[in-house]
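Section 3.1: Structural characterization of target chains.
Under the original work plan, the team committed to producing a structural model for every single-chain target entering the pipeline before any wet-lab resources were allocated. The record below documents one such target. The sequence was received from the expression subgroup and is listed exactly as submitted; it comprises 104 residues.
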Amino acid sequence: MRTRNIKKQVWLNKEEATLLKKKSKKVGTNESELIRRLITDSIIKEKPDDRFYDSMKELRAIGNNLNQIARRLNYNGKFNDSFYKEEVSKLNDFILNIKKEFLI
């Protein structure tokens, strides 16, 4: 069952319609959802580009490696210090790169 049962019709000129379509695509949602977000004063952010998703993939890989180190340590008490330091270094570099690329 539909939660929104009131229909509103809006008339736009060609420029406005094109702009609405472009902005909704940037946000990663449909036009109706964008309009609802605007009405409710929601914070609207553009959908991140592929660099962001590539960065998250890299972060998951580093996290998996650190998790494997922790599992090995819990299982047999052996600890590969050089591998651990390398992964921590990757993580720190990754954090700095993310800050430079997306925040600064």
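Residues 50-103 form one domain.
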